[in-house]
């Protein structure tokens, strides 16, 4: 048995039956990290001592035959955007290079309470702004399936750590596709929950009306286990909500009506990706699901809409990094000079670009033309989904139109980089849940299927995704 | 098209020092992105309400109670860079 290849469910059984100890399970992952991560570069900070201490506590529980939570003793990786008390939290940025988290994020607290073992903090595009992982101030994470290619972003380290068997599961965040895209590129499962289903307390903010934390794992079942552990209303996040029970019922595959949006299969999509996704949809049809073409007419406006709203919210959220309150501070002759230099030197080029874009969109004279207009278009995007979901239970699309690309290939062309997210951003604008599940490979490169559900329809998504997973 | 003067003005509003070389690259990138965003003008938004938040909940407040300040103080004061010259 290779311990680093286990799923959560299998690791849980093994720990319970004393086939191996939690310390052994953790050490095998730490060994793998030391062996493979020089090349992959998923981890920014290892919390080895913390992990081993946590593992010993779990082993004591097992020795005393105490009740064992499903996540107890299971090693995980945390995107370096969530606070883990006493551990460095960089957000992939120089401006927070030496910032040590003073408290646990709610999701981290919940994982710790369940006995999950935190191996360390993993790489991300700076402040989660990116689709490839290349915007991290600490260098890109490489795709475990092909080291010359990107892992996808922004949750690049979270995806690569799981795909590279350096963690059994991980946490990521998704503002415009940042969980689903790297999950697709690295051949794992990633869920962006309904907006508000998981607390954002202790998650460093990018665009608050779009940001959502979620699980990344090797299987749909594992993804569900982690989602169940981290979801729920939190008194520290006033936008968090409890999943209504009425939404937990699911339909079997042969009762499902599946929508396929025609706007998602147009020019620009890689023909091999299209073939795999259509093949997966055909399998649902053969299993008895009804496939219906739906229209989401405002799809082409979702990306430009996102590139007003997200940078605008970011420019406000990132105003707090002033060289005084957190981490990095440049020397300056007066306070204004400290602000200008700390922010100018502390933020990387993509973050500076988005702050400037957002500041422009919100500035006097432009607010109505840009921000307010984008918010109205957002309403149209939401109406599209509401109309489609009157007829269908879930919607299936590709997660990305393209395969994982070469490192450096798109970094100098912002628009072609932004277009990588063309199938994922509208879901964030609408606040809907969506999951990426592998549906095959083109050569050695994984392709993901995106399953979009109704608000709080995560259970139906899991049910549908599990079917695809068995066949892939 | 966004001018270099505008780039400088916005960077100052955003409290970001940028180099001469960067001004040009930013000007070029921002112009390309803004051109792309122009697309939004094609959408009929008359009589559409704006969405600032995907869920309809609002104004969930806790009681406004003061909590203890934890930073280290010097003679009861927090030291920052001087503001007045």
Task: Please explain how this structure is put together.
- The complex is a heterodimer of chains A (472) and B (85).
- With 472 residues, chain A is of the alpha/beta class.
- Chain A has a domain at 3-246: Amidase signature (AS) domain (Amidase signature (AS) enzymes).
- Helix content of chain A is 39%, strand content 15%.
- Chain A has 15 helices and 13 strands.
- Chain A has helices at residues 8-16, 22-40, 48-63, 106-113, 156-163, 180-186, 220-230, 271-286, 299-317, 335-346, 349-362, 368-388, 414-418, 425-430, 458-471; strands at residues 43-46, 75-79, 117-122, 142-143, 146-150, 169-174, 189-192, 212-217, 257-261, 290-294, 394-398, 434-442, 445-452.
- The longest helix of chain A is centred in the C-terminal third of the chain and has 21 residues, at 368-388.
- Chain A is globular.
- Chain B is mostly helical.
- Chain B has a domain at 4-42: Histone, subunit A, CATH 1.10.20.
- Chain B has 2 helices and no strands.
- Chain B has helices spanning 4-13, 20-37.
- The longest helix of chain B has 18 residues, at 20-37.
- The chains are: A alpha/beta (472), B mainly alpha (85).
- How many β-strand stretches of chain B? 0
Mean pLDDT of chain B: 86
Overall structural class of chain B, as computed from helix and strand content, comes to mainly alpha
Query: What is the CATH superfamily classification of the domain at 3-246 in chain A?
Result: Amidase signature (AS) domain
Please report the total strand number of chain A as a whole number: 13
**CATH topology of the domain at 4-42 in chain B, what is it called?**
Histone, subunit A
Shape of chain A: globular
Query: In oligomeric terms, what are we looking at?
Result: heterodimer
Radius of gyration of chain A: 21 Å
Instruction: Quickly give the structural class of chain A.
Output: alpha/beta
* Biggest beta-sheet profile of chain A: 11 strands, mixed
Strand coverage percent of chain B: under 5%
Relative helix content of chain A:
25-40%
Write down the overall geometry of chain B.
flat
Low-confidence regions of chain B: none
Secondary-structure element order of chain A, as H and E?
Answer: HHEHEHEEEHEHEEHEHEHHHHEHHEEH
């Amino acid at each position: 048995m290779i311990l680093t290849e286990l799923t959560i469910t299998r690791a849980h059984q093994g720990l319970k039956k004393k086939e191996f100890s939690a310390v052994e399970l953790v050490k095998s992952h730490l060994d793998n990290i030391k062996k493979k991560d020089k090349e992959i570069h998923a981890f920014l900070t290892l919390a080895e001592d913390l992990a081993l201490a946590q593992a010993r506590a779990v082993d004591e529980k097992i020795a005393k035959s105490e009740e064992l939570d499903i996540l107890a003793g299971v090693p995980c990786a945390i995107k370096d955007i969530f606070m883990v008390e006493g551990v460095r939290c960089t957000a992939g940025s120089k401006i927070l290079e030496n910032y040590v988290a003073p408290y646990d994020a709610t999701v981290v607290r919940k994982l710790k309470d369940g006995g999950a073992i935190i191996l360390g903090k993993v790489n991300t595009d700076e402040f989660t702004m990116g689709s490839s992982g290349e915007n991290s101030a600490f260098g890109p994470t490489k795709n475990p399936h092909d080291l010359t290619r990107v892992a996808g972003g922004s949750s690049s380290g979270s995806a690569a750590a799981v795909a590279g068997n350096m963690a059994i599961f991980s946490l990521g965040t998704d503002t415009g596709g940042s969980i689903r895209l790297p999950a697709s590129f690295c051949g794992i499962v990633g869920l962006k929950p309904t907006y508000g289903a998981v607390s954002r307390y202790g998650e460093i903010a990018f665009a608050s009306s779009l940001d959502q934390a979620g699980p990344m794992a090797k299987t749909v079942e594992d993804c569900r286990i982690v989602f169940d552990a981290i979801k729920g209303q939190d008194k520290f996040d006033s936008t968090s909500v409890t999943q209504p029970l009425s939404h937990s019922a699911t339909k079997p595959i042969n009762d499902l009506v599946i929508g396929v949006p025609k706007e998602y299969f147009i020019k620009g999509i890689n023909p091999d990706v299209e073939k795999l996704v259509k093949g997966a949809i055909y399998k649902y049809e053969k299993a008895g699901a009804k496939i219906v073409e739906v229209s989401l007419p405002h799809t082409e406006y979702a990306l430009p809409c996102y590139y007003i709203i997200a940078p605008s919210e970011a420019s406000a959220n990132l105003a707090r990094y002033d060289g005084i309150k957190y981490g990095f501070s440049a020397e300056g002759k007066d306070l204004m000079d400290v602000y200008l230099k700390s922010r100018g030197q502390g933020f990387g080029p993509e973050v500076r670009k988005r702050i400037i874009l957002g500041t422009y969109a919100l500035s006097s004279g432009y607010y109505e033309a840009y921000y307010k207009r984008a918010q109205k278009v957002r309403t149209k995007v939401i109406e599209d989904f509401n109309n489609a979901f009157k007829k269908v239970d879930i919607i299936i699309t590709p997660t990305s139109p393209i395969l994982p690309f070469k490192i450096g290939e798109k970094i100098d062309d912002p628009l072609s980089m932004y277009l990588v997210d063309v199938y994922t951003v509208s879901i964030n604008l609408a606040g809907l849940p969506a999951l990426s599940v592998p549906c095959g490979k083109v050569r050695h490169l994984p392709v993901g299927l995106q399953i979009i559900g109704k608000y709080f329809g995560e259970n139906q998504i899991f049910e549908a995704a599990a079917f695809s997973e068995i066949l892939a | 098209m966004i001018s270099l003067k505008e780039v400088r003005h916005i960077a100052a509003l955003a409290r970001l020092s940028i180099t001469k070389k960067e001004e040009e690259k930013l000007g070029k990138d921002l112009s390309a992105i803004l051109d792309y965003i122009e697309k939004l003008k094609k959408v009929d938004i008359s009589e559409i309400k704006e969405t600032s938040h995907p869920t309809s909940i609002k104004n969930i407040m806790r009681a406004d109670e003061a909590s203890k300040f934890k930073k280290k103080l010097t003679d009861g004061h927090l030291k920052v860079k001087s503001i007045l010259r």
